């Protein structure tokens, strides 16, 4: 069954380490820099926020800097946003990076692709993640169209040097925050995803992967789409995330494990799920 995701749930403790003794800040499910609409209040201590900020920042800077610029997405440093973007052109075997105005830049969305979460097809966790990279044309000319402006160009493209582990952690954090927004924190006493997010569990691909087959999220015109689902037996919580769903981006599957049995037996467990 599906669970709607409200916005602005107040938690009162760090959703990652459980501390209540430090000042607690907002936690955006989808990163602020990606225009995410779902926010938890009083949900992250400073130490854990530094961990999540690092891998989110590295993902956005290495995977999506151009698309964030072209789409004028949220930034705390808007005044530093460049009016030009780097394009790689190769002629006569020599590559050079040239600066192109945003309106003339071939903007592509980089989309990492993973196997399904390995919990479904492996008995034991394996370290790291396995990934390929695809792209979706979003705005401006295509690479082929842009190449016509550079006679003799043998290659035209852009750099994408990203960390699959950082991206998978970002997905884990998005899925966990969305589920906490939907259910509250009491359901996740034993979820393995905290260790993945904080970096103490290196077997990221066991819990995080791509959705293969028909998408779970319906197309609704929003930039991003998230759905929280539980399956029986054991009330296992799954989250399906599509960042940049508006452009037909792939869907990711985050497995959060079984909800806490005491929570499932309590009146807080949504009646529609019983």
Distance linking N and C termini: 10 Å
Give the number of DSSP strands: 13
What is the helix fraction of residues, given as a range?
10-25%
Helix/strand/pairing class, anyone?
Answer: alpha+beta
Which stretches of 5+ consecutive residues score pLDDT under 50? none
Question: How do you describe this structure in short?
Answer:
The chain has 274 residues and is an alpha+beta fold.
Task: Give your account of this protein's structure.
The protein is α+β, with helices and mostly antiparallel strands and 274 residues long. It is built from six helices and 13 strands. The strands form four sheets. It has a five-stranded antiparallel beta sheet, with helices on one face. Strands 2-4-3 form a three-stranded mixed beta sheet. A hairpin with a 2-residue loop joins strand 5 and strand 6. 35% of the residues are buried. The mean pLDDT is 89.
């Amino acid at each position: 069954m599906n669970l709607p995701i409200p916005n602005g749930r107040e938690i009162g403790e760090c959703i990652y380490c459980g501390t209540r003794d430090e000042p607690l800040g907002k936690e955006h499910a989808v990163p602020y820099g990606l225009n995410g609409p779902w926010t938890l209040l009083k949900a992250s201590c400073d130490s854990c926020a530094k961990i999540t900020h690092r891998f989110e920042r590295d993902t956005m800077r290495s995977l999506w800097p151009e698309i964030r610029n072209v789409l004028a997405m949220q930034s705390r440093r808007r005044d530093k946003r460049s009016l030009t973007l780097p394009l790689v052109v190769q002629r006569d075997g020599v590559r050079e990076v040239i600066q192109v105005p945003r309106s003339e830049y071939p903007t592509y969305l980089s989309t990492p692709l993973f196997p399904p979460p390995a919990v479904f097809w492996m008995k034991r966790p394996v370290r790291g993640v396995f990934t390929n990279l695809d792209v979706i044309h979003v705005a401006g000319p295509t690479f082929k169209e842009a190449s016509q402006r550079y006679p003799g160009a043998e290659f035209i493209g852009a750099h994408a040097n990203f960390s699959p582990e950082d991206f998978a952690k970002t997905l884990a954090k998005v899925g966990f925050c969305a589920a906490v927004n939907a259910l509250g924190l009491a359901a996740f006493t034993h979820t393995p995803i905290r260790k993945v997010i904080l970096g103490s569990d290196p077997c990221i691909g066991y819990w995080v992967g791509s959705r293969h087959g028909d998408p779970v999220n319906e197309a609704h015109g929003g930039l991003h789409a998230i759905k929280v689902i539980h399956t029986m037996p054991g009330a296992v919580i799954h989250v399906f995330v599509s960042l940049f769903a508006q452009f037909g981006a792939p869907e990711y599957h985050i497995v959060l494990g079984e909800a806490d049995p005491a929570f499932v037996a309590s009146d807080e467990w949504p009646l529609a799920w019983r």
